[in-house]
Amino acid sequence: MSTQHALLVCKTCGTVYAEGKPQGKSDGQELIEQLQELHSVWELRDEVKLQEVECMSACSRSCAVSFVASGKYTYLFGDLPAKESAQAVLKCAKLYFENPQGYLAWADRPKPLKNSILARIPPIA
Ligand code: FES
After folding, report:
1. What is the pTM of this model?
2. Could you state, in order of their start, the residue ranges of all structural domains in the chain?
3. What is the topology classification, in CATH, of domain 5-121?
4. Residue having the nearest C-alpha atom to atom 2 of ligand 1
5. What SUPFAM superfamilies does the annotation carry (predicted)?
6. Residue 1 clears pLDDT 70, i.e. is over it
7. Three-class SS of residue 93?
8. Which of 4, 13, 54, 90 is a Cys-bridge partner for 28, taking CB atoms 3.0 to 4.6 Å apart?
9. Rounded distance from Cα 1 to ligand 1 centre (Å)
């Protein structure tokens, strides 16, 4: 059985509030919708689960996504433009899936994810 991988996407990133209530579609929701469309026909859709989450404490650096798998580095990225990042995020998810340690070298990462790492957490030893 292969290790389950997950691409976590914050759906509350970039939410605009008025009188305490969210207004319209958040940037995170925009990114998720684009990712869902691409993910539904992606070659790794069964291996890398797309999962919506609410806030990964990177709110001031939205949009935020994370790559997670047992036995691999966990990455958190921010500063991703909502309407221009979906393809790059899936490309990076493929790199993550294919690397045994989940290591994402700077040179290999697509542009929006080159300089936007917020955390790289080692796997449990
Ligand atoms: S709202 Fe997206 S990380 Fe907090």
Report:
1. 0.95
2. 5-121
3. Glutaredoxin (3.40.30)
4. 13
5. Thioredoxin-like (SSF52833)
6. no
7. helix
8. 13
9. 33
